[in-house]
Amino acid sequence: MSIEMSGFDRDRLSPDLRKEIDGLVGQGLNRQRTADLAARIEGEQPKVAVAVRAVPLPDNKARVIFLVASIDDQNVESNVNARYTVESVEITGVPESRLSKGLRDDLHALVGKRLDPEKAEELDKRIAGELPDYDVKRQTSKGNQAGQIRLVFEITEGESLQWIHFAPSRSEILYHTDQAWSGALDIPMGGRNTRVVLGFAFGNDDHLIEEYGGIGFRIESRKLGTRRLGMSFELSEDRETWQPSTLAALEADPSIPEAYRRRLKVEPSMTFAFNRHLRASGGVSISELESLSRSPDSQMASAFIVAVGFDQRWNQASGASHDLELGYDLRFGSTALDSDLEYTRHLGRARYRFSLKNGDVIAGFSAGRVTGAAPLFERFSLGDTSTLRGWSKYDIAPAGGDRMVSQSIEYRYHHLAVFFDSGSMWDAGASVRYRASTGFGFHGDQAFMTLGFPLNADELRVAFMMGVRF
Amino acid sequence: MTIQVVGDVLHVKAPDLRFIAGEALNRLKNGRTVRFDFDLDVVAKPGGPSVAQGRESFNLSYDLWEERFAATRLGPPARSTSHLTQAHVETWCLEQVMVPVSALGRLGADASFWLRLAYRVVDRDRPPDANADERFTLRSLIDMLSRRRSAGDLGAVLERGPFRLSH
Lengths: 470, 167
Known about the structure:
The complex is a heterodimer of chains A (about 475) and B (about 170). Chain A has about 475 residues and is mainly beta. Helix content of chain A is about 15%, strand content about 50%.
């Protein structure tokens, strides 16, 4: 083994240390011993940082090189790799031309200089700023030459650019004056394209007529060989409780299927993406409903499910953005699936959001229609923390309805919001009454605190709502 | 966890504690700097309030060529080490976290005590905003709830005892 010291005059070392280093010559390579000697050099010379590189030579020999760099800034203390020279900078995932010339120049200016961790992190952020829909990950690795390193900026498509999206999180903690607390927690685990979600619901009565709590499991993949194809399999079990007004309404109308105490659901489905914006799903939803009054008797509510979804964002040079989401769901309960309940449920929805700096305008519209004997979880309800805010769903229709139209428009400025909701829900053949409400509050994308006022109620009332969705 | 008194300071040793792991280790092996914050609290009983505290922060990095770890205790006074294996750098960091023995006098002579050691990975990708309002606000609540789990959320708390100093 031979010894070389680069970047430092070895005569500045103590005689003992020089002797120890010279003692390596002719010996077998001992990495611990060379590392100890590097540490001793740094101990004697506090203004330098030392790296050791062993270069194999013919005839089973090796040359040990002590690479010594002086520390003239805080970088080496921040990151020991700052002693190394950047050999190359690579950008993967998008063509370099997607970045501004200034940023490209700054990235390539790193080559040939010692690594500056702060500068590299700043460049991470600049790339993320220029490509807001992408994720940026920096990889640092050994270069081809001793003492040199490679920087690779890996740029991958962010969530908004995925062709198939994972199901949105259902995690929420909500309070509504008339419905008290509702809660749900989704715990996602997994990777970029496949994940498992463990879900819990706690006394949740915000979305359906029933109040439910239980546990669920969902596995999702959004890339089955191609990013055009995805799948989902969901299994859940919920226990239901009912408002007395709902049970009374069911008793008064025997045409509505009975209430249940337990709902077990299995729902496999496949999704095909035509492009980044348009996708279609199909599958089945098998539900076993254990009767509330005749337990353990149960009914099957099994349906074919079809859904079509579209979403797109348009960004303007001014900084404004437009987001549009459209969706249509069809659920078809059929005896072909041994369903005891035969029904058809259509639901169409649209949502538009215009954002400009601190202001947002959000508009939503949905309409639905159910025919046949649909189970209670398929019936529509309005009057919760997101529809007809200010009304109580149990005052409007305690057993829900089989027809529904709803719209909402909201303006936010610095998260201070005012809104106007209107809509109607009724049963086929019954009279239609449009209801409206307005209100204001603090509306962030995750948290909200709202006061809602029905506009055409028989009495003056106020509903307070707050919560977080995350 | 064991304790050691050197002069007027108390150190802890936790040979089984592997705080360089998971996402933090991945980031280090990827050439990044990872900051660890440590708090060592002396408490009179499990879960009790802190009687005395030692607090240290470290920048750790992983030498890509030497495949060894380096650490810098953030001052003052700053102190650095390098060329260490994972186990050795973990031991070195813990050795720097100390509590003055004199501070234990508040517990009373020969009183037993417990130690609570907490560490946290600080995500350098989200440096604190110097202009940020430290008060609790709805905005901060939203930010907290909307944040994705990252290396910055990693950490653990160990509480062990009882210990007693023999005079």
